[in-house]
Amino acid sequence: MKNYGNALLSNNKLSGVLFILYVLLVSFGLYLSQKSILSFLLLLGSLLILYFLRFSNRVKWITGVAILGFLLPLVASRGSSYQSYMEVATMVGIYVAMALGLNIVVGMAGLLDLGFIAFFALGSYTYGIFTTTQAANFMPFGHYPLSGESFWLFIIIGSLVGALFGILLGIPVLRVKGDYLAIVTLGFGEIVRIVFNNLDKPVNITNGAMGISSVTPPQLFGIPIIYPGQFYFIVLVLLFIVIYMVRRLEHSKMGRAWKAVRENEIAAQAMGIPLVKTKLTAFAIGASFSGAMGVVFAAKQAFVDPTSFTYLESTTILVMVLLGGMGSVPGVILGAAIVTILNLQVLTEVTNWLNQLSMSGVFKVPDALSPAKMQRLIFGALLIVFALYRSKGLLPAKNIQYHPETLIRKKEGKAVTPLEGETNKL
Q1: pLDDT tier at 330 (50, 70, 90 boundaries)?
Q2: pLDDT at residue 422, as a whole number
Q3: From its phi and psi, is residue 147 left (phi > 0), alpha (psi between -120 and 50) or beta?
């Protein structure tokens, strides 16, 4: 069976035709049956199939953009479930970008961060405060709330705020690692949440536990952006930018320095890698992605409160990285998509289906055993299973290694063909 699969993948024309037929069939099914969750998930699954096909990266990128940017919104826009589909897809994009940011810190630099959701909260509150009347309580100048056109500027501001606090977090924890680093970052995440929860007196900045409501929606050329179908395209553009930046960083000098620090700090320092600069850069860049996504989240929800930024959210993002494969960009994307879709759609739909069976008298399911309430148990079971049978994740990280003869020829200035190097799993 494996030989047949390899033969199919090696034949680009045949695999391409079969892939196109699969996409068209699934798209046609979603177009005809707008409430078919299975068709929606199968269409998203085509991106995973595309990853394994042996096409050039340019072809894969163009095909992926066409599916996500054109085909998916088109075939899902016919029925009343369009906004719910776009809501799930938008949240998947937000969590994928955040997981890629955490992957820089945990997967590439080897710095265990359990308070990553704090940067997400900082970005959300930055936009929420200044686009409501909350800023008028403490700002001595300016007129608030700011207009929705400031949203595009706040995406940059949110990333800068996240990067700044990432550096402030990194400075005091440079000398700790392992379990102690995890404890410190966990404390940082909880401190940020508690501060936002109590920053309603003596000056009301965050409105405390009541949260900030009526956040000004973004505007583009005077058109308000309020629907998930509109936010979907914003998140899609930002996600492609994040993926491009992460891929460039992964194969850059800084990316190789992160991996060296992850493997052995002493050896990395002996090779001339500055530990302080390398670690702070990882914290800053990873936190900047989370801060930018926090701005989008606040604008989409139009409401911000501390309950959205708990420790469980940090662990959920960490689960995405572990499930997909630490240090692997495609793996993290897959892990974040699986966890988000399970959480927002699959478990919810299964719960609704079981409730309908209970109401019709087929059989009774205790409310405490509904899948929506047992999501942490399900995620924990998934982690145990993958730790036992797939410890490196769904799509483990790959690293390019060359034969000694290849390295000698490079030093001598001779040409080296791409086939002379080999890609092995770490």
Answers
A1: very high
A2: 42
A3: beta
pTM score of the predicted model: 0.89
What SS3 class is residue 422? strand
Is residue 345 domain-resident? Answer: no
Per-residue pLDDT tens for 93-122? 999 999 999 999 999 998 888 899 999 999
Cα–Cα distance measured from residue 50 to residue 422, given in angstroms and rounded to the nearest whole number:
22
Instruction: Tell me the per-residue pLDDT of 130-173, one tens digit each, with 9 for 90 and over.
Output: 999 888 888 888 888 898 899 999 999 999 999 999 999 888 88
CB 403 within 8 A of CB 421: yes
Report how far residue 265's alpha carbon sits from residue 274's, in angstroms, rounded to the nearest whole number: 10
Residue whose C-alpha is closest to residue 101's, from 178, 193, 166: 166
Does residue 26 share a domain with residue 103?
A: no
Dihedral sign computed on CA atoms, order 161, 163, 168, 173: positive
Average predicted confidence (pLDDT) for the chain? 85
For residue 387, how many other CB atoms are within 10 A of its CB?
11
Q: Which amino acid is at 365?
A: V
CA neighbor of 121 nearest in space, from 190, 216, 202, 23:
190
- Residue 140: asked if its preceding bond is cis (omega within 30°), the reply is no
Contact 359, 288 (CB under 8 A): no
End-to-end, the C-alpha distance of the chain in Å comes to 26
Number of domains the chain is built from: 3
Tokens of 259: 């991996």
Per DSSP, the three-state class of 158 is helix
**Domain stops at, among 311, 326, 341:** 326
**Mean pLDDT in residue range 61-76:** 92
